[in-house]
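Here is one such tokenized protein:
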Amino acid sequence: MASDEPKAKKLKLSEDEKTQSPSKKAAPELRPNLLFGMGNPLLDISAVVDKDFLDKYSLKPNDQILAEDKHKALFDELTKKFNVEYHAGGATQNSVKIAQWMIQEPHKVGTFFGCIGKDKFGEILKKKAEEAHVDAHYYEQDEEPTGTCAACITGDNRSLVANLAAANCYKKEKHLDLEENWKLVEKAKVYYIAGFFLTVSLESILKVAKHASEKNKLFCMNLSAPFICQFFKDNLMQVMPYIDVLFGNETEATAFAKEQDFETKDIKEIAKKAQALPKVNTKRQRIVVFTQGKDETIMVLGDKIETFPVLKIDPKDIVDTNGAGDAFVGGFLSGLVQDKPLDQCVRAAHYSANVIIRRAGCTFPEKPDFK
């Protein structure tokens, strides 16, 4: 089957390479603040649960949702009834950390903005960001506690319930617009914001996206969850013209296609249609990258579709798929920041995801073993 062959094919960007490659120079000198991320910093409360627990709170085994009133008791019950682990989380923050881990040196190549509370969980997030050598600049407020995300694991599925709390309080004028913070934004050349942040601060996203577009820098975004494609599609489509690299998985791609009336469930076709949506910065063609769990990853650039088989893994080695998508993006971003060819970005992405699913939470060993 043709789809199994592309390992042999180098992704050639031909004449487009000059405009597609994130920079025209040879491999860049890595420096702090080259990669900028903004999103919802959350403390993950992770536990292996049973089907009864999922049913009690009407959770699907593999999903991401925002907590509603009916989920309030879930967080307490999770910590009392199951063996929980705490991990610094939040999709964008995870991806920035993984990118930094893949890069290793120098420290603080990755910058992260988001909102936390002035509390114990907030202190944990600050400490974890520092340990990961990420340059985190949090907007700290005391009206809401630091956000949490319950990761309810059954087998190799994870159901995520996010209680945004403080993360929902991010304010453009109180943080992003401050001169010292905006300078950090300007220092970056690759930007990544998960779709989850569309529920929090569209104006912050648009300010960063427009800056990237005007300066011909790379702006990347993730569909993140079916509910983003469904209930926040207006916000998503306001940002879409600025997106240079769009990430998503097959479930999100299908939900996106349905909402956009693409009239197809074929993931390759959906990727092509998403790639062809209007774009402000015409110096760069949009790149669309859709993962499909253990099945091949699809990448569309122009009219070219590439498929990449994922690294094989024995199902019994899978500890926790929570964070696999974030890790994939983090690996990809580490390649983009270093101006690597796109096929190498995918290779780095597959490697990162493969490491993360062998561990609990979005955690990683001290150093990557990636050549």
